[in-house]
Design brief:
Length: 234
Amino acid sequence: MQLLENITPSTAAQTGPLNRLEFIDACKLPTQWANFTLHAFLEHATGKEHLVLTLGELSNANSANDSPVLARVHSECLTGDALFSQRCDCGAQLEKAMQNIAKEGRGMILYLRQEGRGIGLLNKIHAYHLQDEGADTVGANQALGFAADLRDYSLCKDLLAHFQVSQLCLMTNNPAKVEALQNLGIEINERIPLITGLTPHNLRYLGTKAKKLGHVIPEHLLSSQTLSNQKDAA
Ligand SMILES: Nc1nc2c(ncn2[C@@H]2O[C@H](COP(=O)(O)OP(=O)(O)OP(=O)(O)O)[C@@H](O)[C@H]2O)c(=O)[nH]1
Ligand SMILES: [Zn+2]
């Protein structure tokens, strides 16, 4: 085993064109839902450390195992994934995706370090500040001089190639994400909705995603009345 600093292109497994993504190492990741394997990759151009969680035999190259892989392409959200923020649905979606994969016994989560839809954590905090003062999630990005969504999914192609995965059943509410992956030549056999984590704090945010970013979230779920009915029924 080598320290990260000592890894050179000639000593580590390579993935993707021009070796832009380097596989570093993998380890077991036991969770309450399943014992996943965690794979770590380094993106040379940015120094970003991307992760892939896997469960079961994935490779579509094996003819006995060529069914699409249940997958989530998750964009980093430190506030939602690690700090329990209810401003968004990210943490709940990540948890549900892991549960779904555990139930299926096979699947993968591509955890991309594209915090804040690609604007980075500090700019996301600026955007949240603007939202505290009334802006919506799209307007806040624009007020800061960014497009609404700056994410780039091209790394997914390299990551999937590493695992010899060519077909996905993708857990997402975002048709633009499906289209971006399809445009990269990734086969998406099915889009599986991932509607969870709705709270009074994120109804407006989710409503904006539905209206301005094209996310598929049934309108009746976005009313505070529905939420309080669900709470009463629980
Ligand atoms: N700039 C900005 N980024 C946000 C905001 N809220 C969440 N994010 C980021 O948005 C990304 C997740 O994108 P979402 O729009 O929630 O969902 P999605 O990935 O497009 O679609 P799903 O697959 O359905 O989750 C993460 O990188 C979050 O950090 C916000 O108000 N402003
Ligand atoms: Zn989030």
